[in-house]
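thread: overnight batch results

M.L. [08:02]
morning all. the overnight job finished for the chain we discussed friday. pasting input first so we're all looking at the same thing
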Amino acid sequence: MTNSKSSHYFSPQSIPSSEQGAKPVAMKTLRMSVQGRKLEMAAGNGMFSKTAFDDGSRLLLKTVLPAIRVLPQRAVVCDLGCGWGALGCFLAGGGSTRVLMCDINARAVWFAQLNAQKNNLPNAKVWCGDGLSAAKNECFDFIVCNPPIRAGNATMGVLFEGAHRCLKTGGALWLVIRTSQGAKSWQKRLEGLFGNCETVLIESGYRILKCEKV
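M.L. [08:03]
and the structure it wrote out:
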């Protein structure tokens, strides 16, 4: 979904709609709390981690919250591959940061949009699209991503290339990858793309990586 307030960040070509029969027939309500922030979320079939906030995203959220808090007012954050929107909705809870969430799965986008509305987050917007293909260059201050490892290296590469293109100079991509699913290998590839990639945290089989656009 886009509107006049979010279209500033997108190219003028047609942006895929999140509607198109995506409304699910059943949903599960999840009550979630992370570092004092509480949300009531809806999730359902046909998406990643449909019954809980997955451990990787939760660890990524806890790691990036301090950095989000010191972003300048009106900073723009992207939750790339947002799923049903837990990560993006928590990041939008601070109020002043604009959060744009994106996923290729129209059903996930429907849920993410619903969850932003349920939790009264007018600063969170959602669109359905293939990565950041529709986003303009250098429009985000901050991108978070729990990438779809099982989608394959080619898909992952396109996501990260899009993140590099769409970050402002000085902006950062933060992501979480399981060590057992190639986090070290991806760190080397990201170093080649960004010129840097820092391992911020290693915990519970996950690695939190951070790349800055220079």
